[in-house]
Amino acid sequence: MATERTLSIIKPDATRRNLTGKINARFEEAGLRIVAQKRVQLTKAQAEQFYSVHKERSFFGELVAFMISGPVVVQVLEGEGAVARNREIMGATNPANAAPGTIRADFAESVEANSVHGSDSAENAAIEIAYFFAGSEIVG
Ligand code: RTP
Ligand code: MG
Predict the structure, then answer these.
(1) Does 1 score more than 80 pLDDT?
(2) Taking Cα atoms as reference points, which of 66, 53, 56, 64 lies closest to residue 121?
(3) Where are the domains positioned within the chain?
(4) What is the pLDDT of residues 50-86, one digit of tens each?
(5) How far apart are CA 43 and CA 24, in angstroms?
(6) Which of 11, 69, 75, 106 is positioned for an S-S bond with 37, CB 3.0–4.6 A?
């Protein structure tokens, strides 16, 4: 499998509980390299744009409010099959369904406050990475 990059976000529920280091350790232990990273406070407009694919969903307003409720850490992870590998490490969206040992099983508070985001395809990863990072900010 080829080396890939994926966009990860450590969400406000996790930054609030000082879990950034523990979550980053999961990525690194799984062989994913953190090749870009910054801590930011998203604006409402940025969160709405980032999650615009969900704008018709009933939970959209709550999701945007949650994503701007505190700082997030946006990062680029690089490794073999990084998109799928990261989704495995994250676990299912709802922590009640997440496999034991996954980030969401171990840290998520709810289906919404589920600690991490990860791109769901290589195509979306490219779009999401470009949304947050200039090429010069990614150092592989
Ligand atoms: P993400 O995009 O954040 O990596 O998560 P995902 O692919 O596992 O889940 P997705 O279906 O894309 O949903 C995006 C985020 O919306 C929140 N959500 N809330 N209240 C609800 O029923 C509900 N469903 C989803 C979660 O924060 C989810 O990660
Ligand atoms: Mg998603």
Answers:
(1) no
(2) 53
(3) 3-42+72-137
(4) 999 999 999 999 999 999 999 999 999 999 999 999 9
(5) 24
(6) 75
117 is catalytic: yes
Instruction: Outline where 30-81 has alpha helix (H).
Output: 44-50, 60-67
Amino acid at 50: F
66 C-alpha vs ligand 1 centroid, how far in Å?
A: 11
Please say whether the beta carbons of 22 and 107 come within 8 A.
yes
Could you tell me the end-to-end alpha-carbon distance of the chain, in angstroms, rounded to an integer? 18
Closest ligand 1 atom to residue 117 Cα is: 4
**DSSP strand pairing (33-40 vs 3-10):** unpaired
Query: Whole-prediction pTM value?
Result: 0.97
CATH code at 3-42+72-137: 3.30.70.141
Q: ipTM of this predicted complex?
A: 0.93
